[in-house]
Amino acid sequence: CPLPVLRTKKALNGMASGSVLRILATDPASVRDFEAFAKQSGNQLLQHGEHDGAFFFLLRRK
Fold it and tell me: Bigger pLDDT: 2 or 12?
């Protein structure tokens, strides 16, 4: 589902360069989605993982 990526893009646009955004998602496909988003957008995926069935991501705004 592209909705988490779209919401992330909107949130990052309102943040200063170098700021870090923490994202939580429940869809296993979100790992692939956020890896691709980071690569395409130039933002840095600092970390990602899974905890109790939820996926988390730390993205640094370019």
Answer: 12
